Amino acid sequence: MSEKFGKLLKQLIDLSEVDMSLARILARRKELETQLADKLLAIEEQEREFEDKSAQATNDRETFRREEKRLKEENEKLVGRRKALDSFSDYKSQQAAQKEIEQTSRQLGTQEEKLLATLDALEALEGEAATLKETLDKAKEEFATFEEDAKGELVTLEERGAEKQAARDEIASNVGARDLVAYDRIKNRFPMDPVVALQGQACGGCHMELGPQVMVQVARAESLVKCGGCGRFLYMASNEEEAA
Fold first, then answer.
1. Which terminal residue of the chain, N or C, has fewer Cβ atoms less than 10 Å from its own Cβ?
2. pTM for the whole thing?
3. Closest to 143 in 3D by CA, of 51, 29, 28, 41
4. What is the mean pLDDT of the chain?
5. Percent of the chain at pLDDT above 70?
6. CA nearest 185: which of 226, 131, 242, 132?
């Protein structure tokens, strides 16, 4: 291995390690941002569900109260009509009025039964709204805790990313423009590992078995060697790296 090529290979390996860290930082940032967005969206959906259910319960309660008031007034009128029966001087008129009162009484009884069923449904609806409110409050509390932790981690990731980017810029400034362009093309395809060590007689990236000629070229380390399968740069790991 020539000293010049050895230095270049070391720089590309270091660059690959830094880029791997940057890729992991970026992936974690995206993961946190996605989780925040998803959790916020879920809370907004829960809020809409609660508001719809609460509005329905309020509307149904108002309808129930109006119907309850109407039935009360109708019953009061019916009581008044029963009291007025004695004032009828004509027997037939009295019997007709009695029959009408009984019919009206049966109708009101049916309506009261329906009103009681409506009340049961209303109370169940209000119970559902209350449960949704409890679930929503809990979700908001959990989101607030998650958001605080996530924002703290995002700040840390931002700082680490800036440090890694500065290290990358320094390393890249010492790599020749042509070699850097070739490296960046590979990194765009494999951001986590554009430069990989051999694993036995296979590429450490795509694990394709390499031919004897390629193995010799990598072992000589006199020029940059690409994997014929994935296109990553290859190098021969030291004993310490293999043990690691």
1. C
2. 0.74
3. 41
4. 92
5. 97
6. 226
Q: At 218, list the tokens.
A: 């990598």
Residues in the chain: 244
For 87, phi then psi, to 5°, come to -80, -10
Predicted pLDDT at 2: 65
Say how far apart CA 219 and CA 232 lie, in whole Å.
16
Q: Is the pLDDT of residue 114 over 80?
A: yes
Output the 3-class SS for the chain.
CCHHHHHHHHHHHHHHHHHHHHHHHHHHHHHHHHHHHHHHHHHHHHHHHHHHHHHHHHHHHHHHHHHHHHHHHHHHHHHHHHHHHHHCCCHHHHHHHHHHHHHHHHHHHHHHHHHHHHHHHHHHHHHHHHHHHHHHHHHHHHHHHHHHHHHHHHHHHHHHHHHHHHHHHHHHHCCCHHHHHHHHHHHHHCCCCCEEECECCECCCCCCECCHHHHHHHHHCCCCEECCCCCCEEECCCHHHHHC
Residue 202's φ and ψ, nearest 5 degrees, are -125, 160
Kindly report the CA angle at 131 between 64 and 50, in degrees rounded to 5? 70
Indicate if the alpha-carbon torsion angle 200, 204, 208, 211 is positive or negative.
Answer: negative
The residue-averaged pLDDT of 216-236 equals: 91
In this prediction, residue 242 has a pLDDT band, given cuts at 50, 70 and 90, of very low
Residue reference for tokens 């310490």: 240
